[in-house]
Amino acid sequence: MDRRHFNSILLAGGALAGTGTQADEAMAQGAATSGSSGFELLRLPEEYRKIFDQSYPRFSDGEYKRRHDAMAAKMAAAGVDHVLMVTNAWVGNANVWMTGWRGTSECLTLFKPGEQMVMWVEYYNHLPQCREVAKGVDVRWGQEKGAQLVAEELAKRGAKKVGVIGPLNGAAWKGIETKAPLVSLGREYIELRLVKSDEEIQWMRIGGALSDLGMRALIAGTKVGMSEHELSNMIERSYVGIGGTIGIHFIGSTPMSAPDCCVPRQYHTRRTVKPGDFVFCELTSTWWDYSGQVLRGFTVEAEPTQLYKDLHATAEQAFNDITRTIRPGVHSRELIEASAIIEKNGFTTYDDLVHGYGGGYFQPILGSKSRPAGHPPTLVLQENMCMVVQPNVITKDEKAGVQFGQCVRVTKTGFESLHVFPAAQFKAGQVL
Description:
The structure is a single chain. The protein is 32% helix and 19% strand. By secondary structure, it is an alpha+beta fold. It has two domains: 22-31 and 197-427, Alpha-Beta Complex (Creatine Amidinohydrolase); 61-194, Creatinase/prolidase N-terminal domain (Creatine Amidinohydrolase, Chain A, domain 1). Helix 1 (22-29) runs antiparallel to helix 9 (198-221). The two termini are 25 Å apart.
């Protein structure tokens, strides 16, 4: 996943397509028992049921207080007396982190420590649910002039300096700045998201379980003749019906005898699955604002060729070598050094080797030795940082490749996977 901004993804959907027995379709959809929340499909400890069964996912009051206090400390250090949090067209996630409301169209929230937050929301018909979810927030209609209303409120309060987090457009910035000076607080906000609380880790495990469910459905349900669009639809049907939301599912399919696709496609095609194919996927399902990410590949009605065996073996060893290196205090450049088996075996990468995760696409963003990232690594690992380790190995001619990896957490002594998906190369139709 080679993206520098991962604050939010638009939602999508569709109807079930494909053929097979009723049992196959139930597995492909991850179908829950009628009337149940579907929690049993996640294979998580019972303690997670209370979180999963909420009508609207929401953290504890103590967790929101922790966030508000942390934001107040950043504000004091930056010399700002207000923060304006912006969500626009589902992009910008400071609002959900601070209030619980994910945002839809424009959402503008003023935060001042010790005072009730004020939020302006478009559209008018979004107000009822927003008021139910964003508890303790004064939710108002934006009236299609949200920036003007923010500026008026800041002037009334006599604001001295305002920090901005999120996608505030140039015209809105200039308009608000006539009433109070604005500065970006985006870097400080990202720093707040790098290290996760215990509650956030729990939610990320739910996102991981939903992502695993999607991958299980893809592998079990893939059949010859299905298009990439149908594979995508099958993934979505596995978790949307139980409350998961769509992050990404990049899918690639290619003949192993003459491969022409080394990384999954971001936009699916009408190519149909054929015997002898290799299918691979990068998959993220989301629990409100917390995602998993799992990457795997599998063959269709054939054993893997020697090339695909070698690619997978290299990727799996690189993953193991990298994760063995993870622990607090390790400089992120050491993770690149740990991936040397990729080049030793004559391969390279296209994707980022490792990237920070959980509420955004964060540092460390690392490339491999043969495909460096855009910036040199500077980050030192801390406990409860989360990262996707994904040594997605490809051939140097860029014709063949595999996907292998998943989201992990830095623990006191090493790492913990936030997924339970097996580390293997699979066959289509395999039930896991």
